[in-house]
């Protein structure tokens, strides 16, 4: 077969029309030749994980042309230093070849039978050696080229440059951060979380997870509620193993509600190590706080009728809307409570708030909320719920984040509980759609209902 038939065909003006195919082997069809090319040519990014084992990558060589039943041979070799520098010079690159000690490949001559449309060459790379030899004076590659004495090579796809990036494999919590579960009945409740790795797992090994009180202390300092460390006699913790074929290990927390009071608890967990020394801990997935809201079903709460004599507040406008009565005087365009936006009544901690004085102590609180009838411009974004026995000393029992977008939009809260009964509730809005309520903005409300038990 003629090696340069494609160029001859172009010289005489023969139009070559490629046809679509899944592996693009017909992209360079010619009526007169067999053409070989790398399916993935140019730069090929490959991540190598340091696991004590080599990482394999398969280079694929395609056969195309009008006679797909033809037999042919090709040679796949690592480019010489001289050939690589010549390529750099002609293409404007700065490729640097990794030493041959970093890899092996099943190279040499490959033979295409009449039914073969592609062949593969396996490149096996040593991550540790690759990492040792990657410098900062260019792009370090393992360069390959195709040659053939029998048939043509597509000039644009005859080179493949494997660009390895070496990483240490890691494990981490799939859903790091804080996660809360409401527990409303006695008995055992099991909560599961996954520990994951980013690669196909070929190993059996364990990971270590510790309870870290300092993690909870740090979290309590950054949020409004104070979470109590989950008592050791109220739970059991099991950390599953990684097994070959699965990149997930399961952590199971089983909580016995009968050993808890009401309110907010948390178990702060830190992933501390793996029995396979090749794995490190992913910093972003290192910690997990499992929050427990020990509470009751909302259906157990009764509505508490609102009246002006039980309401007070700070930063409530008397010049817009219907004042505190706007919380319970119905839903309509002129019926709403509005926070101050003229006199600068904004508390740096509580923002603008409404206090509810209750006739009977409760341990569980919930509310329904409607945005202002006409729009959600001042609807709450961040609301903090406080409880008190005297209306002076407050402790936080919950926090709510909303994303209201429309007028007369309803939100029904969950249940906020305390281990001690309380007679006052503070509904504190620190951020609204209008801005930061602690520093000068405002919030408003179309209607509220409160519930307690």
Automatic annotation (TrEMBL):
Residues 1-22 form the signal peptide. Keywords: Signal. Residues 35-151, 182-277 form the BT-3987-like N-terminal domain. It comes from the Bacteria. SUPFAM superfamilies: Galactose-binding domain-like. InterPro entries: BT_3987-like_N (IPR013728), Galactose-bd-like_sf (IPR008979). This is DUF1735 domain-containing protein.
